From TrEMBL:
Name of the gene: LOC113430268
Segments crossing the lipid bilayer: none
Compartment(s) where it occurs, according to its Swiss-Prot or TrEMBL record: Secreted, Extracellular space, Extracellular matrix
InterPro entries in the record: EGF (IPR000742), EGF-like_Ca-bd_dom (IPR001881), EGF-type_Asp/Asn_hydroxyl_site (IPR000152), EGF_Ca-bd_CS (IPR018097), Growth_fac_rcpt_cys_sf (IPR009030), NOTCH1_EGF-like (IPR049883), vWF_C/EGF_Fibrillin (IPR052080)
Gene3D superfamilies with a match to the protein in the record: Laminin
UniProt name for this protein: Latent-transforming growth factor beta-binding protein 3-like
Record-level Gene Ontology MF annotations: calcium ion binding
Domain EGF-like as annotated: residue spans: 1-43, 44-86, 168-208, 209-248
Presence of keyword RNA-binding: no
Amino acid sequence: VNECELELCGNGKGVCMNTGGSYNCHCNRGYQLKVQKGIRSCTDIDECARPNICGDGGSCINFPGHYKCDCHPGYRLKPSRQPLCEDIDECLDSGTCPDGRCENKPGSYKCIPCQPGFRAQNGICYDVDECAEDTACKHGWCENLAGSFRCSCGEGFVPAADFRSCVDVNECQNGSLCAHGVCVNTLGSFKCQCPVGFQAVKDGPRCKDVNECDFPAACIGGECVNTVGSYQCLCRTGYQLERNRKCQGLWLWVCPRERARLPSPSSSSWGLTREPHVFVEGAPDP
């Protein structure tokens, strides 16, 4: 008896091979041999009964002789011999997160805003080099850090509390500067404003007394005595100070007819025999 004429293996499910007194089934792919009560046949293999056959991102749908993976959103069918749903890495697309960092997740993704000091480019946050900007750390030196920067300041400046700028030092808060003068704070430094009789010196922050006696014109015909911030011009007897800098001899007027210039009121070099009415210029009348 040729059992193969009875299509015991199943039409389209396998190939029947007749043997002496029996038969055998060679099942197609997706089918398996089943023997029940001595009858051989090819039955469908339920691939969906296998755990996780489509992966975590899909559902298995069984068909006669084969199966299909229905992929969830965020997954795609992997091009391989065995169907499998694989995750789509959306972060490979540079336009996915234009304003932040792209973080891929199973079946999805997440855009994470860049931290301060970073700038997004193609889904990646890159450090911003603040030191490349001309306005960074004016009056100092800029050191770029990851997500930030730090200022080291020049002379006359100190870093601000956040180390992101340089602040002028008010040297005038030190009360020991500019002795005998007024301290004026300037950007990055200071200067001394000195009163009359003093001058600023370069070797130290102070006002130095001017020795007016070093100038011959300061006291003509007298003795110059320097004082702190000023000086005195001392005239000898018979002279008086004019315009605070010249000792001028006194004039004697002899009346009614003689007019003489005497070096002093006690001089007798003129040989006068009578006492005329004498007026001393610059002196009160007798």
